[in-house]
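Q: Convert this sequence to structure tokens.
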Amino acid sequence: MRAFVFDRYTQPVHEADVPEPAVGDHDVLIRVDAAGLNHLDERLRSGEFKALLPYRPPVTLGHDLAGTVLRTGRHATGFRAGDRVYARPRDFRIGTFAERIAVDQADVALAPASISTVEAGALPLVALTVWQALVEEADVQPGQKVLIHAGAGGVGTIAIQLAKHLGATVATTVSGKDADFVRELGADVVIDYRTQDFAAELSGYDVVLDPLGGESVLRSLRVLRRGGKVVGISGPPTPAFAKAAGLNPLLRLAIAALSRKVRAAAGKLDVNYEFLLVRASGDQLRQIARLVDAGILRPVVGATFPFDQTVQALRSLGTSSIRGKAVIDASALPA
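A:
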């Protein structure tokens, strides 16, 4: 079948003919109708996550999908052929930039009924990231103040909506042209990062969700109340994360060094910093689907590309400025 792979770290992605997926007893074989594009794919290909996610090339990229169940393994009783589903396959079983993929049924959920397949394909990775950051890590409560960086992006557009649903007052950073757009999503306070310094203008926040990393994390610590928390999804990873992930002692030491500066800064301010690497969860996707069908969350698709243009679409991730997500639309491929 057709798929888009890289053969070695840092090498370009290209189309290849790869074997059909092996379908295990607990797997669901899915025809990929739409697949979200994520910066995680490029970061994985470049080797940035090689220590945390040591894939053995060749690797088929793609971390989320919406599609149609073709058949199931003998113990995969939760789905049947013809079901319209969406999923973020677990690490080391990714590969949604392909015609078909076998996914553990625990990672799969019925797609929201109220949105298109392309919109469903935009959701899994970013929606799970936001859910695990705001609900699990930060436990956002009504009346709290939440800052979401890059509010017009894939993570940000969902995070604003979920934080608002959880009862928070929501601030976000965007370019000025996106100010009205994020207000429509639910943002109460909008900071134009080109002309305003969020760290100087905001204070007393309970939670910051930071998809940017680097200096943004350090500056975000300063807007928190005592005991508040920054959840970072671009890094740096922390020793607590490394321990929970079962990483080897040498790698744990390296990670401790990488995050020492931010952890020291957090300690001085009596605030917290946590690193999140999203995990697959069909159960959480079912909860997210209910929120979508209730009109509480809506995916934002800023661009679509046909399957044949997957390479060009991946290249565009670092150069284009779209709202929400870009998605590969594979619905035109032969069934």
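The radius of gyration is 20 Å.
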